[in-house]
Amino acid sequence: MTFFGRLKKMINPFSSARTAEEEDTGKIEPGERVRGRPKIHVLATGGTIAGRLVSTGPRYRAGVLGFEALLDAVPALRGLADYSGEQVANIASQDVDESLWLKLAHRVNELVDNPDVDGVVITHGTDTLEETACFLDLTVRSPKPVVLVGAIRPAGALGADGPANLLDAVSVATSSDSAGRGVLVAMHGSLFEARDVTKVSSSALPSFTAPNSGPLGQLIDGRIYFGHRTGLSPKRPVFDVSRLDKLPLVGIIYGHAGTSAPLVKALVDAGCRGIVSAGVGSGNLHRDVLTALADASGRGIAVVRASRVPFGLTLRNVEVDDNRFGFIAAGSLNPQKARVLLQLVLTKTQKPEEIQKAFDGY
Ligand code: SIN
User: Fold this and answer.
1) pLDDT tens-digit profile of 330-360?
2) By the 8 A CB rule, do 187 and 148 touch?
3) Which DSSP string corresponds to 6-20?
4) CB within 6 Å of ligand 1 — which residues?
5) Mutate to test the pocket of ligand 1, among 124, 126, 166 (most ligand atoms within 8 A of CB)
6) For residue 345, which of 75, 94, 205, 336 sits 20 to 30 Å off, Cα-Cα?
7) What's this model's pTM, rounded to 2 decimal places?
8) Of 269, 343, 265, whose CA–CA distance to 304 is shortest?
């Protein structure tokens, strides 16, 4: 029985009469295709979208509800697609790590290769959603839509945003217009590309934006209104992670007035193969940090300059002589996404010029 059918039974366990909609969805066997109805697979990982209000202690707990409960809570989903799904994790996204990224990449690649799956929706906590989206964008090879979605308010909260976001995400995943656009993020009525989206508010709505490119489109009443149709760069790097069970260690050093050089040493001593500098302004560095990073670069550690400033680009050789120090410039990637890309590139090369090419191509 469908998620929705189970819900109906819960409301009236003695009802055996099937509605027209139940006939429509209840008869579908796995692998069977009903003309016109897309098949969406939901991968649930937790987050506030699966969170619940609690009466004591912290106001709510993330990662409590299972994926069936999420689907059942939005009856309008029923009209859009047939669903399958699985609980990949049920955690708050501050606990997401690279092993979950690899697990998701493996599973999503399997699903998009399956002719019985038309699109994948991934429910995720919003805190690190952009990093998971970026990782999948760089590791999933399919034009089929893969859409990440979360919520800022848990189920049961006044103005809970999860149901509308989920409906939007499924609308995107079922639309042929979404094909071939890389991994997408649907949040608060806007559609974003994984590369550009970032969380900008931990409490207010809308909480995501794409600082340098803006959203790809608006989501209104289940329809996508595209703002721009640039398509993906043909130079975009794609990484095969099917044989990987871990990624190279890459750390981030956060720039501020008086950033301290020993922090660079701590990252080097920890065995980092790459360091991302979340520098100030256009990726500028305190002179002591510059010296320490130049030294690290000289020892073969990849050093990427990004910026803690959300808008604008970190370009090569502006105030820092990247050519001289062998640094890589992150362009418009924020530090946390520069880290994701650097981890993946380091599985192939340690050469700064090659790494810069990957950054320029994404
Ligand atoms: C989380 O990222 O898991 C908690 C916060 C959220 O989902 O909004």
Assistant:
1) 999 999 999 999 999 999 999 999 999 999 9
2) no
3) HHHHHH-TT--PPPH
4) 47-48, 62, 92-93, 125-127, 150, 152
5) 126
6) 94
7) 0.85
8) 343
